[in-house]
Design brief:
By secondary structure, this protein is α/β, with parallel strands linked by helices. The protein is built from 14 helices and six strands. The protein folds into two domains: 127 residues, no CATH class; 187 residues, Carbonic anhydrase (Beta-carbonic Anhydrase, Chain A, 3-Layer(aba) Sandwich), CATH 3.40.1050. Bound molecules: zinc ion. This is Carbonic anhydrase. Reversible hydration of carbon dioxide.
Length: 325
């Protein structure tokens, strides 16, 4: 049995939305189907994806049936207009089924799957036209560089929707200078600025950043740690924080460095000539952001390029600071 069946009006909504793109989409769809589904054709030939044959379903244990029923009920419980009567009505209308599963009782993906199904039902299907357009082309307004920390996802904190922000996340939200060579961050920057022509770059730092704490605590001896080799990109920010906040304890120094490192990353953006060129032309604006995850506040500022000063190099200023609480 297929994991999902979408019928009735759900399918008709998708069909109507897809009609406008049909001609252009044909080639892409053919290309995809020609390649086939790699999950359905693994080298071993033993992986069969998420589908089950009827005989397999007949062998479902009572425990599995109860579990699937619970998953389906949970999905509809998440609906805003849930009620017992509406539950049954909605089941008939949308004909949504969760897949039969095997494996451990406590599947780490149970909750994740429900969230995905909820996203599909409440966002993707309801805004089908928008998502079909996004499937063709992306034109994000923002490039976002944020920390990899699990607590600071920009899509959750400032609500970026799919298609709004090309995002790269790394330890301590650092931008290495171009002379340090290629990195996943510089690759994402190149794609965002040169290909997608984003108009805004936002570097988001945050409080309680373990990456910054590691940077502030590390000694200068050669380390083989991947973390150490990465966070050394923030060394200039560390030195400034140590200098300015020398009289403060390590926690306060880290807080200082968390913001200093954002501006250091913004400065490093100018070591990429195609970024400086667009900023000078007024085609690209750079911003800093700082999320305090203890008090849930957000500080935003514009990182303004004053120009190249003879004998002083580039000069910057911070403008339009705002504090959201
Ligand atoms: Zn962090």
């Amino acid at each position: 049995m297929a994991t999902w069946r979408i019928s009735c009006q759900a399918r008709s909504v998708l069909s109507a939305a897809a009609a406008g793109f049909r001609a252009g989409a044909t080639r892409t769809r053919r290309a995809s189907s020609a390649l086939g589904d790699p999950l359905q054709h693994s080298a071993s030939g033993s992986f069969t994806g998420v589908s089950r044959s009827p005989s397999e379903n007949e062998r479902l244990t009572e425990k599995e049936r109860l579990r699937n029923d619970r998953l389906t009920t949970s999905l509809f419980t998440n609906s805003r207009d849930f009620s017992t009567a509406k539950h049954e009505e909605r089941r008939k209308t949308c004909d949504v089924e969760t897949m039969a599963e095997s494996g451990a009782d406590e599947d780490v993906f149970d909750e994740i799957k429900l969230r995905f199904l909820s996203f599909k039902k409440n966002k993707f299907l309801k805004e089908a036209q928008h998502y079909q357009t996004l499937a063709k082309i992306q034109s994000p307004k923002f490039m976002v560089i944020a920390c990899a920390d699990s607590r600071v996802c920009p899509s959750n904190i400032v609500g970026f929707e799919p298609g709004e922000a090309l995002t790269v996340r790394n330890v301590a939200n650092l931008v290495p200078p171009s002379e340090f060579g290629p990195s996943e961050t510089s690759a994402a920057l190149e794609f965002a600025v040169k290909s997608l022509k984003v108009k805004n770059i936002l570097v988001i730092g945050h409080s309680n950043c373990a990456g910054i704490e590691a940077l502030m605590s590390m000694n200068d001896t050669e380390s083989r740690s991947y973390v150490d080799k990465w966070i050394i990109n923030g060394k200039a920010a560390k030195l400034r924080a140590k200098s300015v906040a020398a009289h403060l304890d390590l926690d306060q120094q880290c807080k200082h460095c968390e913001k200093e490192s954002i501006n250091e990353s913004l400065k490093n953006l100018f070591t990429y000539p195609w970024i400086e060129e667009r900023v000078v032309k007024g085609e690209l604006v750079l911003y800093g952001g700082y999320y305090d995850l203890v008090n849930c506040t957000f500080e935003k500022w514009t990182f303004y390029f004053e120009g190249r000063m003879p004998g002083e190099g580039r000069k910057f200023s911070i403008r339009d600071r705002s504090f959201w609480r």
